[in-house]
Amino acid sequence: MFSHTRRRGTQAIAAGVLLASTMTAPASAATVPPLPLPAAIAPLLDQLWVLVAAALVFFMQAGFKCVEVGMAQRKSSTSVAMKNLVNWVLTSLFFFLFGFALLFGHSWHGLVGTSLFALKDAATPQALGLVFFLFQAAFASTSTTIVSGALAERTSFAAFLIGCVWQAAVVYPVFGHWVWSGAFDSTNPGWLQKLGFIDFAGSSAVHSNGAWYALVGAWMVGPRRGRFDAHGNACSLRPNSMAYATLGVFILWFGWWGFNGGSTLHLNAAVAGIILNTNLAGAMGGLVAFAHAQAVPGRRDVGEKFLGGALGGLVAITANCHLVSPMAALAIGAVAGVLHNIGFDLLLHRLKIDDPVGAIPVHGVCGVWGTLAVALFGRAELLPLPRWQQLGVQALGALACFAWAAANATVIYYLLKRTVGLRVSATEEELGVGLTPDLMSPSLPPTTKS
Fold first, then answer.
1. Is the pLDDT of residue 430 over 90?
2. Where do the H-state alpha helices sit in 262-349?
3. Helices (H) and strands (E) in the chain — how many of each?
4. Model confidence band, residue 164 (pLDDT cutoffs 50, 70, 90)
5. In 37-58, which positions are buried (b, 16+ CB within 10 angstroms) versus exposed (e)?
6. What is the rounded distance in angstroms from the CA atom of residue 420 to the CA atom of residue 158?
7. Would you call 222 exposed, middle or buried from its count of C-beta atoms within 10 A (0-12, 13-18, 19+)?
8. CA 195 to chain centre
9. The pTM is what?
10. Which 8-state DSSP code applies to residue 107?
């Protein structure tokens, strides 16, 4: 399928040694012009960098696990952690079997891929080979993990499994095809890509896609018991550990350097600037969200908003990090911090939708903002369209993302509610949700169809 794997591996190691030797050269050698790399080495350095980036994105799963376990109640910590692992297992399998094909296969009218199922006949113009698949599989798992956090502590295991499979195999890949199919084969673009839509590393394709799917699921499954009082006022459910959630934010932030930096698909001069913009937007998002939460009367949920604002800044810069200046990255992060807090309060206190980890304002609200910021802050000479026309295309893409993800979630969760049931029993929720009998409290009644 992808030939010469062993020979390429040897060459990649040699390339890494060559790169390390140049980085550790004595200071006196700094004035010596660098030798041009042999033609065979540059693609292997690209493979090495994207493989490292894929590992960083994979490691983000540990960050999601820490955030979700930290934000959830202690009684549910085991099931929340196990669901993160189940999410990776299912996404790895179903993205390999179906998702990659729907995302990057031969396009049917720019709507969906029709080849490459289980990587069959994947002779490819993409020089990265299997490394490209691994990188994309790690991206897919990021989108599906968003849903597990938003539906935590009251969703049945069967509903979680089926919803995760559908998202990994169909929902994420189809929208991704509209945006990114040309990354695998430049002659095979999706319909949004043809219009000039830009989403560099997935503010919409990964983050908003998962958030809108989660929004519908959280609305349909309903809030956790005790989240609202009889008058509809939000009640505090003590999180397991904000310290543990903070560790998760650090891990996610670290992984984001690979998430955005690796999306160049090449080890080139743009990588450092992309990572710089990513870091600045996350830092400013956290600072502004914290200050905004402190300034608003009542000072509610300051810790959650601080962590979420930092992540929101990282989400917002993801679509545009290759197009904007560092000062623009700061502005994008600042707006993301405020929008995150507004979205957080709107969702919880006005719409009465329970999102235990705050995934929807982070990935949904800030994902839309980052998608629009492409046109508002991107360097004009790097945009394919005039600025205001670009803004219209970006808005169309964000709307299409919402419509596609929300429509799929409405259908799949309605069917699940009518068949296997969305919620666990009241007793199981009270004692702590489990996945199997040995991971839950004894003598719990079966899941109810509610």
1. no
2. 270-295, 302-317, 326-345
3. 17, 2
4. very high
5. eeeebbbbbbbbbbbbbbebbb
6. 7
7. middle
8. 24
9. 0.88
10. E
